[in-house]
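Researcher: Please generate the 3D structure of the following complex. Treat every line as part of one assembly.
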Amino acid sequence: MALPKNTQSIQVKAGSSSYPVICGAGSLSPLSELLITHAGVGPLFVLSSPRVWNFCGPKIRHALKGANVSRVILFDDHESAKTPRAVEMLCRKLIRAGARRNATIVAAGGGVVGDIAGFVAATFLRGVSLVHVPTTLLAQVDSAIGGKTGVNLPEGKNLVGAFHQPKLVVCDPTLLNSLPERQFRAGLFEVVKYAAIADQRLFELMEAKLTGISRHDMRALMEIILRCVKIKAAIVGRDEREDGGRAVLNFGHTLGHALETVTNYRHFLHGEAVGWGMLAASLVSVALGKLDPDVAARMIRMIAGVERLPALSKTSATRILDVMQRDKKSREGIVRWVLPIGIGRAEYGAAVPQESFRRVWAALPEWERKAREAECLGAEYRA
Ligand SMILES: NC(=O)c1ccc[n+]([C@@H]2O[C@H](COP(=O)([O-])OP(=O)(O)OC[C@H]3O[C@@H](n4cnc5c(N)ncnc54)[C@H](O)[C@@H]3O)[C@@H](O)[C@H]2O)c1
Ligand SMILES: [Zn+2]
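Model: Done. Output below.
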């Protein structure tokens, strides 16, 4: 089928699945047709949140005109509600609403809706079809692509989950118009992540156009979304189940997830916690002699330029280390970090000595302050 003008389709090939990510302003309009082509004609169950549905519901409903929508089910999409209980509640609602194995779940929302609805699709009746309509920047560049689904436990982030690839992802940046500013900026941290680990050109683009991007300039926004989707598609295509290269996508997440956990998922937005995590990983990498201090300074300036990060809570380094050890990526109690080794290059699997982490942790707030005040000098850290 013909796609609207200025829309691009990027194919994700992950294991035995292959599906398109349709990107562009207006990509939502052929949704009904796209659903038939990629997910078939079975009944659709739209899973979303009251907030998302309030802002994006009219557009999505309009795009679903003529489609076989059985039910729209709304649920709380606060990070602290991303729990196994939410999954149980949704599965029960689905079965009572008549959903069977030919159902397709359409997840319309940010990463929380996508992760919960994705996990429901992975497990309900041992798996039904899934389509993502991401409505946050973070979800459009990251969480809707690649098949990771799951929920949190009090003990840690995303500790219960499954890989379940969607049949289709539709990223329409016009859905971001109603996104609160803080949420938009939280998504930009994941964009910085891609640039830092895989795309020097994207990093330079961000340096040059951060102001335009922050003002939601549609062309600049489309360019960064497309670059991120292509990077994620390529990485997931090489390593669907994170047996190797996909792990670099966790840059900033080792500390980021621990920060979210110790604050009961209420103090930081996910992207903000990742912002602190990338800042820490850059400093750790300098301390271990893997990253030039001047390059680290550039990264820190970029992170600080996206948004003023919420203050770190008064958590001890010991507590953070304890939580990081429970992370899915740690092995025999040794925390594995993704460390940047240049702009656009990262290394996975570094075991960071506890002492190095403690020193960086103590210095973190000061570094963020300095970077914001643009007096971040690489040589200073070397000393
Ligand atoms: N599965 C993955 O690969 C993956 C990758 C990255 C992040 N994640 C997960 O994603 C989650 C974070 O997702 P997020 O940043 O999208 O946040 P989110 O889903 O919490 O959404 C942020 C807030 O914005 C609201 N919202 C969403 N779209 C809106 C719109 N268009 N207009 C107005 N309000 C809107 C939501 O209701 C919510 O209150 C975390 O749980 C994180 O672990 C998953
Ligand atoms: Zn993330």
